[in-house]
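Quick question, first post here. What does this chain look like in 3D?
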Amino acid sequence: MTKEFKEFSTGAVLVVADEEVLYTYKNSKEIGLYTFIWVREEDAVLEIDGISVTITKNNIVVLTPNQYFRYIDGSNLIVYQFNREFYCIKDHDKEVSCMGVLFYGNSAIPVIRLPEKEQNKLDLFHQILLEELDTVDTIQAEMLRMLMARFIITTTRLVKQQDDFNVVESQVDLIREFNALVEFHFREEHSVAFYAEKMFKSPKTLSNNFAKFEKSPLQIIHDRIILEAKRLLIYTEKTAKEIAYEIGFEDASHLSRMFKKHTSFSPSEFKKQLKLEPAGKY
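> Answer (accepted):
Ran it through. Tokens below.
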């Protein structure tokens, strides 16, 4: 079952489907859309950025467009996908926007646990969404956007209530803003000073604000650089030198040293290991 809404004037796309829509991801590739995968009745096995993960039933996993994804196993799934043109028309920085908690929080792969009460609520939401997809009129687009906003508000509230989401509101906003800035600029900007200036803080103040978190601002920047380097090494045939230039290093040896510090391998050694190890190890 796949239902799709398209808006010619804006290029907006919304897809509501079951696991069949994921069959095109039998080989890992960029997922390309903001994606929610709701695992309902039995566990699902997915590969996200080269790592195989098992999502247990009554959980929702959230993916951003640039993440690499492979569908391995799972049935009776519900999948919601949309592009920036559908939901992110205004790039406002609110926690339920496309720069919000679900997409640029402190977790690389947010997983939302659904209590029974919320399962029933979202079951009803899903039925309303399906009915609206069949109602073609001049206000359909606005209604679909309102429904998706409601879903994102509900799931954002749930993820903030989870035990592992234990920072105060101001800290959440700080992490989210910083992660979003890193996502948009990490290919060109690798220094904490750049991001601190964007956030109207000194580098020292920004680092002090991160003191209670697991990672410093510099570690977050480096982690994003290494993740991108891994993606390009795993999923493209680009050389280590080409990858270094693509993510902002004039001297490839600088990336090589950073990569080895994080992974114990140089980029070329990592590439060789990919041919020896089973998929999903990294």
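The radius of gyration is 20 Å.
The domain at 2-161 is CATH 2.60.120.280 (Jelly Rolls).
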